[in-house]
Amino acid sequence: MNISNLNGTLSLKNGVEMPYLGLGVYKAKGDEVIQAVKHALFTGYRAIDTAAMYKNEKGVGKAIASSPLKREEIFITSKVWNSDQGYDSTIKAFHHSLNELDFKYLDLFLIHWPVKEKYQDTWRALETLYEEGKIKAIGVSNFLTDHLEDLFQTCKIKPMVNQFEFHPKLIQQDLIDFCHRNEIKTQAWSPLMQGDLNNEALAAIGNKYNKTVAQVILRWDLQKGIATIPKSSNPDRIEENANIFDFQLSEKDMQEIDNLNQDRRLGPNPANFNF
């Protein structure tokens, strides 16, 4: 992955270009999400990650509609929630998301969680929508290796993206390697450990480069070949998270951050969640 600037992208298996740094909008509601997306686009972000479960797709759509940018200049991701999984219900849920956003298409649509005995039918729905041209790329979220191997048994199209919890305390290198072997791009959610950034090793690395801990972590994401979507509605934080293209972590510093791994999840475990 060539890390160049805030407008940089990585190529998905089907040739679609996905920005490797975007804005996550989980928990942002009403005018808060509208202002956050507006500021992100003004700052230079070109990717916004939302989901039906966030209940803010309408606000994301309003912010983009008010932007001077063309719709095709912005990469929008949304996700089908667990209670909507299944073939017909996923088709219906997708069109509801599209209506909330007031878009004609989505850039990326994901299965939010691998709901047992449903995600195969949900994936068939995504394949249908993709083949109909309503989605530019399709993928999954929170899928572990066994979920992906199971999906491979029945899918016509392999996922192009797998978005999962990834941060210095939870690296999941085996999952990353599996995805990359199968030409699935990886994307980190909760890259900043839900704001738990009080770490001496990370602070020391940041001091070397005159960068914050958050900036060090996001740069580490990209240098590991992982796209990232830090969430924030704070204008200063949105700008800070984007200011990571004027330095490069050394191999030693990359390894030191890797060594912080504790296999510690901050969110649910996809292997045994029950939503």
Automatic annotation (TrEMBL):
Domain of life: Bacteria
Pfam families assigned: Aldo_ket_red
Residues of the NADP-dependent oxidoreductase domain: 30-261
TM region(s), chain numbering: none
Gene Ontology molecular function: oxidoreductase activity, acting on the CH-OH group of donors, NAD or NADP as acceptor
Keyword Secreted part of the UniProt annotation: no
Record key words, sorted: NADP, Oxidoreductase
Catalytic residues of the enzyme: Y54 (proton donor)
This protein's record includes keyword Oxidoreductase: yes
Site (Lowers pKa of active site Tyr): K79
InterPro entries per the UniProt record, alphabetical: AKR, Aldo/ket_reductase_CS, NAD(P)_OxRdtase_dom_sf, NADP_OxRdtase_dom
Name assigned to this protein: Aldo/keto reductase
Native source species: Fulvivirga sediminis
